[in-house]
Amino acid sequence: MAGETTIATGSAEETRALGAALGAVLAAGDLVMLSGGLGAGKTTLAQGIGEGMGVLGRVASPTFIIARVHPSGRGGPDLVHADAYRIRDLEDLETLDLDSSLDEAVTVVEWGEGKTEALSDSRLEIAVRRAQGGAAPALGGAIDLAAVDDGRRDIVMRPFGQRWDGVLEAVVAAFRRAAPSDSVDAVGSTRA
User: Fold this and answer.
1) Of 74, 70, 66, which is closest to residue 58 (Cα–Cα)?
2) What is the pLDDT of residues 116-130, one digit of tens each?
3) Cα–Cα distance between 75 and 54 in angstroms, integer?
4) What are 67-118's pLDDT values in tens digits?
5) Which CATH number goes with the domain that contains 86?
């Protein structure tokens, strides 16, 4: 099994481009779990995944409707984009009925860490983090993201299962071709 891969992106556009590179190689049955703080860029990455898959419609945060299905615009699998933030336990997860479409669609779950691993032993877990210095506390300890967020992200991809052997290498290669060469700060990989 491949190890963890970390990519540093320099902007929201690059994060979306990384998502597009990933979306281009995803297949029906793939489960992608996105974690990260509020405003970290999970939905931005999911938008890129949808773009790479060629789905119809705008990929938006599923926060208030819990799950959205985006049909393929080119005959590939649909994208099921879900938000597990309000999911408390396996019973809540079952109400989403994600397992019914898991084999036929690509399923991307935001806030899934610690909640949706039971859906599949084969999955890609992605942590989206603001790069060091990407946001700073404003007066009173609050963070004014609009004022200080420079868009830089560290994106850590951790594969589980043989399905992902070689996939992340292809994603990194495609991303490097798509992103301006001087803006890809770092790509690192470790063996599990």
Assistant:
1) 70
2) 787 888 999 999 999
3) 9
4) 788 899 989 999 998 887 766 666 666 666 666 677 889 999 988 787 778 7
5) 3.40.50.300
Retrieve residue 81's tokens: 């984009």
Least Cα distance to 57 among 66, 67, 65, 47 occurs for: 47
Three-class secondary structure of residue 174 per DSSP: helix
CA gap 140, 58 in Å, rounded: 36
Question: Is 59 part of a structural domain of the chain?
Answer: yes
| Other CB atoms within 10 Å distance of the CB of residue 65 | 11
The residue segments making up the domain with residue 111 are 5-134+148-178
What is the per-residue pLDDT across 161-178, written as a single tens digit (0 to 9) for each?
Answer: 999 999 999 999 999 888
Q: Quote the Cα angle for 163-168-172, to 5°.
A: 160
The total of structural domains in the chain comes to 1
Specify the pTM.
Answer: 0.82
The phi and psi torsions of 164 (rounded to 5 degrees) equal -90, -5
Closest to 34 (Cα-Cα) out of 107, 121, 98: 107
Q: Is the pLDDT of residue 61 over 80?
A: no
How far is Cα 46 from Cα 110, in angstroms, rounded to an integer? 9
